[in-house]
Specification:
This protein is mainly β and about 120 residues long. The protein contains no helices and eleven strands. Strands 2, 4, 5, 6, 9, 10 and 11 form a seven-stranded mixed β-sheet that branches. The chain has a four-stranded antiparallel β-sheet with strand order 1-3-8-7, with no helix packed on it. Strand 7 and strand 8 form a beta hairpin. About 30% of the residues are buried.
């Protein structure tokens, strides 16, 4: 079992920045990737970014490339999402997720077993 707890959400004006954190606890040694997703009410949850924990390789959704950076501190079992140049379309609930099964497509919701409760990000124009 892995427990995830997000923090760092809030309200910001367009053009601003936020850094989200996701603290992992429990049996974290077997995780193969950690990701950030976001969801707007009435829409499907979408993958934002992923980091493959062993090699620290990253992949981003096209909508956030060049603006968001995913990173990990393995000593602290913490995942981060640095979000710059935020715009109102980034407003959503942000979730971190992790999984122990290799070979799954990173942006599919069903590729992750463990999820946090989410942290709200609101960007005003």
């Amino acid at each position: 079992q892995v427990q995830l707890a997000e923090s760092g959400g809030g309200s910001v004006q367009a053009g601003g920045s936020l850094r989200l954190s996701c603290a992992a606890s429990g049996n974290t040694g077997r995780t193969v990737r950690m990701a950030w997703f976001r969801q707007v009410p009435g829409k499907e949850r979408e993958g934002v970014a992923v980091i493959y924990t062993a090699a620290a390789l990253t992949t981003y959704a096209d909508s956030v490339k060049g603006r968001f950076t995913i990173s990990q501190d393995r000593a602290r079992n913490t995942l981060y999402l640095q979000m710059n140049s935020l715009n109102p379309e980034d407003t959503a609930m942000y979730y971190c997720a992790t999984d122990t099964r290799p070979g799954r497509y990173w942006s599919r919701v069903d590729s992750y077993i463990y999820w946090g409760q989410g942290t709200q990000v609101t960007v005003s124009s």
